[in-house]
């Protein structure tokens, strides 16, 4: 049974129609395009203006409007819309946080597209024998959605249909279901993130000795289990560069690919771009320097990193002189990379407990100082300080990205003031009593001028 669209068209649906009208006006005149234009009677407009408010908000957050517009212009779609309670109260809070994190935008898109089938399915299409359908989710192309009837109830995957043919439009149908459908790919990504968050830092005991000339182990390290911390310090694994160890050293994760550092670095850079306000930082990592590649190699070898990411407003204050020196962008970025895994909570707890905390950076031998200020963490000193502005932009257990509102520079060590030269006083040699008596006797006869010691 069809249900009417609630009330007048909402502002969201009107804005969506305005966007479509603008897009259509920019396209060249084509009869096929004209016939496929989306109007107010589209199933997408009905979804945005329906009582499935939680689903429509997620579709907007996932930036799927253009994707769904392209889908309905090519074919009818059937949308299986979970009830609001399934997304608002019944969903695991940890899983919901995972979906709403900017770095997991792709997972959210795959989850929502998994609820949409590129076919027009009416209520009379359910049979006792399961019918398998593909969804609009490309990452779950191999995972089919079964539709069948059981004890007189319509079932979609693992969810019961509570309102079939809820909204019917010329280009699609919306069916109400009782719970969320979760594809295996999204479930695996969530489990991987959760297991990485549970990974704790391990302090190695009896670290092997490193040859200072070659920056290699003096004797081969014992075999390390998968995922164990690397044997060499991170500084010895850095690529050649100014003030850095010259020889890249293999860690236990490198040849065995226990960690996919390249994908993780690409993931956090995409997160910076989706988060907004950190485009300059991403541009320096990818285009101006090779730091993104180097960070990916370090993470693949088992190292962990915390990135203090200055926002665009802070990066805009950099002068040409600060960036014109050879290697200046790299040195600036190295000072914002901490070779340990820290979150906003761990850093704040540290400064609250210990006052000032010094963190090593990849710009040897400089350290960055952190302290508690105004209920947050402040890095640096004086005018060159920066506050923790956007905490935990990206945290996956190997890479942590913390947004700050300033660019940090190391405090240059000032030379100790030179002491004023002390006037050298030369004292005359002192004569003894016997010599004094001899000089007097010679003076009496006028012969003392022959002896310089008597003058």
Describe the structure.
Residues 222-232, 243-253 have a biased composition (Pro residues). This protein is an alpha+beta fold and 455 residues long. 35% of the residues lie in helices and 18% in strands. It contains 18 helices and 16 strands. It has helices spanning 11-26, 31-35, 43-48, 53-61, 65-74, 84-88, 93-100, 105-113, 184-197, 234-237, 261-275, 279-288, 291-300, 312-315, 320-324, 328-334, 344-354, 433-444, and strands at residues 77-82, 116-117, 131-133, 145-150, 153-156, 159-169, 172-177, 210-211, 216-217, 305-310, 337-338, 357-360, 367-373, 376-379, 386-395, 399-404. Strand 4 and strand 5 (153-156) form a beta hairpin. The longest helix has 16 residues, at 11-26. 32% of the residues are buried. Mean pLDDT is 77; it is low at 1-9, 17-36, 198-206, 240-257 and 413-418.
Quick structural gist:
The protein has 455 residues and is an alpha+beta fold. It has helices at residues 11-26, 31-35, 43-48, 53-61, 65-74, 84-88, 93-100, 105-113, 184-197, 234-237, 261-275, 279-288, 291-300, 312-315, 320-324, 328-334, 344-354, 433-444, and strands at 77-82, 116-117, 131-133, 145-150, 153-156, 159-169, 172-177, 210-211, 216-217, 305-310, 337-338, 357-360, 367-373, 376-379, 386-395, 399-404.
């Amino acid at each position: 049974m069809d249900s009417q669209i609630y009330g007048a068209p909402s502002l969201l649906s009107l804005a969506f129609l305005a966007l479509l009208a603008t897009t259509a006006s920019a396209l060249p005149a084509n009869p096929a395009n004209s016939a496929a234009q989306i109007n107010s009677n589209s199933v997408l407009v009905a979804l945005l203006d329906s009582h499935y408010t939680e689903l429509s908000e997620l579709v907007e957050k996932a930036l799927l409007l253009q994707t769904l517009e392209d889908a309905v212009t090519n074919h009818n779609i059937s949308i299986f819309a979970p009830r609001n309670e399934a997304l608002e109260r019944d969903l695991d809070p940890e899983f919901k946080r995972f979906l709403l994190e900017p770095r997991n935008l792709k997972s959210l898109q795959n989850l929502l597209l998994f609820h949409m089938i590129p076919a027009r399915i009416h209520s009379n299409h359910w049979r006792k024998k399961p019918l398998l359908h593909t969804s609009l989710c490309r990452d779950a192309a191999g995972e089919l959605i079964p539709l069948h009837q059981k004890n007189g109830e319509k079932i979609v995957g693992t969810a019961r249909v509570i309102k079939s043919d809820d909204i019917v439009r010329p280009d699609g149908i919306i069916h109400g279901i009782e719970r969320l459908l979760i594809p295996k790919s999204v479930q695996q990504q969530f489990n991987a993130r959760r297991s990485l968050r549970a990974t704790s830092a391990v302090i190695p005991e009896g670290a092997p000795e490193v040859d200072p000339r070659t920056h290699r182990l003096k004797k081969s390290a014992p075999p390390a289990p998968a995922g164990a911390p690397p044997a060499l310090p991170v500084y010895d694994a850095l690529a050649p560069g100014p003030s850095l160890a010259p020889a890249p050293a293999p860690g236990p994760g490198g040849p065995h690919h226990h960690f996919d550092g390249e994908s993780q670095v690409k993931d956090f850079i995409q997160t910076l771009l989706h988060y907004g306000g950190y485009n300059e930082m991403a541009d320096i990592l990818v285009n101006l320097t090779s730091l993104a590649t180097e960070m990916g190699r370090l993470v693949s070898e088992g190292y962990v990193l915390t990135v203090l990411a200055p926002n665009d407003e802070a990066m805009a204050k950099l002068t040409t002189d600060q960036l014109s020196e050879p290697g200046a962008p790299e040195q600036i970025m190295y000072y914002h990379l901490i070779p340990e895994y820290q979150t906003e909570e761990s850093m704040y707890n540290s400064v609250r407990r210990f006052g000032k905390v010094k963190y090593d950076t990849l710009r040897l031998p400089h350290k960055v100082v952190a302290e508690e200020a105004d209920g947050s963490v402040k890095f640096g000193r004086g005018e060159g300080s920066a506050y923790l502005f956007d905490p935990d932009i990206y945290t996956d257990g190997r890479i942590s990205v913390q947004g700050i509102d300033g660019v940090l520079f190391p405090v240059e060590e000032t030379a100790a003031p030179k002491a004023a030269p002390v006037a050298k006083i030369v004292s005359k040699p002192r004569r003894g009593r016997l010599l004094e008596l001899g000089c007097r006797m010679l003076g009496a006869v006028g012969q003392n001028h022959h002896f310089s010691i008597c003058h």
